[in-house]
Amino acid sequence: MSIRIIKWSEDLSVGIRIFDRDHFNLVEDINEIAHAMEGGAPPATIAELMTRLCDETDAHFSREAAFLRQAGFPDVERHVEEHRRLLEEIRTATAGIAAGKGPEDEDLYHFLRHWLIDHVIGFDKDYVLWAKQAPS
Asked: pLDDT by residue (tens digit) across 87-120?
């Protein structure tokens, strides 16, 4: 497997410190999973790393949803539903890996890479644009 490490950049920043820190940590987690897969780590190790990623993602999504509700973001329920869907996909992949029936390493890495980048650049940037346009 040939990995392309996700490099943190301003393109992934939403401009809110706590969320940027969360996103940075999720990038680091995904990169750690990729290195473990590339190094031939056993499925139990990958499942453990995936479980940690899932827990950290869940905590991040909870913080983000609370912030969006408090701020009155009009599309909060769609955003929360996207969080639920993404978490379910991560949990399903983790369970498969733990049971020895997970996706191929490269498929898993591409899935993780794309859900993080697509979510941050797509979905999360929506609330940033909204916040910048909302009256103070």
From this structure: 999 999 999 998 888 778 778 888 888 888 887 7
Q: What is the pTM of this model?
A: 0.88
| 31 within domain boundaries | yes
Q: Would you say residue 3 lies in a domain?
A: no
**Which residues are CB-neighbours of 103 under 8 A, at least 6 positions away?**
93, 96, 97, 111
Q: 49 to each of 78, 95, 100, 103, 125, how far by Cα in Å? A: 28, 12, 15, 15, 27
Q: State how far the Cα of 60 lies from the Cα of 57, in Å rounded to an integer.
A: 5
57 within 8 A of 19, measured Cβ to Cβ: no
- Domain range for 28 is 12-131
